[in-house]
């Protein structure tokens, strides 16, 4: 049965949901408060990462955050501020950071990443978006210390046990697969299971395709409130009028938290700001890498190399802290001594807010409060990687189909 559907949020998750819902024959409208040219879906590292099996809420993370709290250039920065929502989230995050909860999350994260990687490949093979970069060169975890190597070896063993392709490279092997750039590292763990893309290429192509097939995309329109009756959302009130629909999808990223509060729902969520610098000249880097000690990502994209990273919890704002940008540039230099990111390149740095749940798992599913609402947010650093999988799962939920995987771990009603 054809349904009229409103998707709140036009990032990779919202657009992916629109993509799969329109294929099911539904009438879809996407509403976004921005002009859809910036944000986390445009400035991320472009990774498709089955290897990222460890959730952000891992043992020791809160201790690291407190230790780094007063250093605004640190990779994991929590700005000191009086914010009850943040305090509650941090408490839930701490409760979630146990070995037992991480162990339960690992196979679930792997499964949804594999599903999403396959869907990226299917989308490319369909020709719907035309050609776009999707390369399966894997991901290098570059380490400079024995401590970092040992940490990643343990993760690699878990990944290998789950069937993911992974190998260890010494300095000579590393240089043989990256011959055009000098790398200062003792070695690397190579997750051959991973892929990468160029988000700034895919996002416009996705919007063009959706426009062609009749999906309405409303830019610079803010959702202000909803009108509900007996667990059913009857109207979506926006800055430019109101809408009615059979089903609503909340895929508004970090802003989903504020919307949920207006709708009397508890959805613990914080915005984790990430930064990226684009270097539009030849670097010689051909394989994506995580620089372990610098805690940052490097991706060879279409026409440029992106250096990205940091997790900053400082509320919802678009402030660019230059000390954090500089830390990325310096972190890159430590591993790639021949690369110097210029002042001009640093000034052009961009940021995006990633929606982070307390346990590092996304929220995907229908909440108890509303029968015609599906929530799709909270993906933290894996939003890009999990976009297509989340969109597919949303379309299955709304169409009443069997979901491609068990989504109970992603319940919006889970307690922390």
List its traits.
416 residues, FAD/NAD(P)-binding domain, 35% helix, alpha/beta
Quick recap:
With 416 residues, this protein is of the alpha/beta class. The protein has helices at 12-23, 40-43, 61-68, 84-96, 99-126, 146-161, 171-177, 199-212, 256-262, 322-335, 343-347, 383-399; strands at 4-8, 27-31, 47-48, 76-78, 134-135, 139-143, 166-170, 187-191, 195-197, 216-218, 223-229, 232-238, 241-243, 247-250, 270-279, 289-291, 296-301, 304-313, 350-356, 363-365, 373-377.
Largest sheet: 9 strands, mixed
Mean pLDDT: 94
Q: Give the low-confidence spans.
A: none
- How many E-type strands? 21
Binned, the helix content reads: 25-40%
* CATH class descriptor name: Alpha Beta
CATH architecture: 3-Layer(bba) Sandwich
In CATH, the homologous superfamily goes by the name FAD/NAD(P)-binding domain
Strand proportion, as a percent range, falls in 15-25%
Provide structural commentary.
The chain has one domain (4-410): FAD/NAD(P)-binding domain. Helix content is 35%, strand content 25%. The chain is built from 12 helices and 21 strands. The strands form 4 sheets. Strands 4, 6, 7, 8, 15, 16, 17, 18 and 19 form a 9-stranded mixed beta sheet that branches. It has a 6-stranded mixed beta sheet with strand order 10-2-1-14-21-20. The chain starts with a strand and ends in a 17-residue tail after the last helix. The mean pLDDT is 94.
């Amino acid at each position: 049965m054809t349904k009229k559907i409103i998707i709140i949020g036009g990032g990779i998750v919202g657009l992916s949901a629109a993509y799969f819902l329109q294929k099911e024959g539904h009438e879809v409208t996407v509403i976004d408060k921005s002009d859809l040219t910036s944000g986390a879906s445009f400035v991320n590292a472009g990774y498709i990462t089955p290897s990222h099996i460890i959730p952000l809420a891992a043992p020791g993370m809160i201790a690291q955050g407190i230790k780094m709290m007063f250093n605004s250039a640190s990779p994991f920065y929590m700005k000191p501020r009086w914010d009850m929502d943040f305090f509650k989230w941090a408490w839930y995050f701490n409760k979630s950071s146990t070995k037992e909860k991480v162990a339960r999350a690992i196979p679930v994260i792997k499964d949804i990443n594999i599903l999403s990687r396959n869907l990226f490949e299917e989308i490319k093979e369909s020709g719907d978006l035309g050609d776009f970069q999707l390369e399966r060169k894997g991901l290098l975890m570059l380490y400079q210390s024995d401590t970092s190597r040992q940490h990643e070896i343990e993760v690699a063993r878990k990944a290998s046990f789950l069937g993911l392709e992974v190998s260890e490279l010494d300095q000579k092997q590393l240089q043989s697969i990256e011959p055009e750039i000098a790398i200062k590292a003792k070695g690397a763990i190579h997750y051959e299971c991973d892929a990468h893309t160029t988000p700034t290429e895919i996002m416009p192509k996705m919007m063009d395709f959706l426009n062609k097939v009749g999906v309405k995309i409303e830019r610079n329109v803010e959702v202000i409130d909803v009108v509900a009756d007996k667990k059913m959302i009857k109207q979506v009130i926006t800055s430019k009028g109101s809408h009615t629909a059979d089903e609503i999808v909340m895929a508004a990223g970090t802003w989903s938290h504020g919307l949920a509060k207006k709708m009397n729902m508890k959805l613990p969520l914080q915005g984790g700001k990430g930064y990226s610098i684009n270097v539009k000249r030849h670097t010689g880097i051909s394989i994506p890498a995580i620089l372990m000690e610098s805690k940052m990502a490097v991706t060879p994209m279409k026409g440029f190399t992106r250096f990205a990273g940091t997790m900053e919890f400082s509320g919802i704002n678009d402030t660019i802290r230059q000390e954090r940008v500089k830390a990325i540039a310096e972190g890159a230099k430590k591993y790639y001594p021949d690369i110097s990111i210029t002042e001009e390149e640093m000034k052009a740095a961009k940021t995006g807010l990633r929606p982070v749940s307390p346990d590092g798992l996304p929220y995907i599913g229908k909440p108890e409060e509303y029968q015609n609402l599906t929530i799709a947010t909270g993906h933290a650093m894996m939003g890009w990687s999990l976009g297509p999988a989340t969109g597919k799962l949303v379309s299955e939920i709304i169409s009443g189909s069997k979901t491609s995987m068990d989504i109970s771990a992603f319940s919006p009603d889970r307690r922390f």
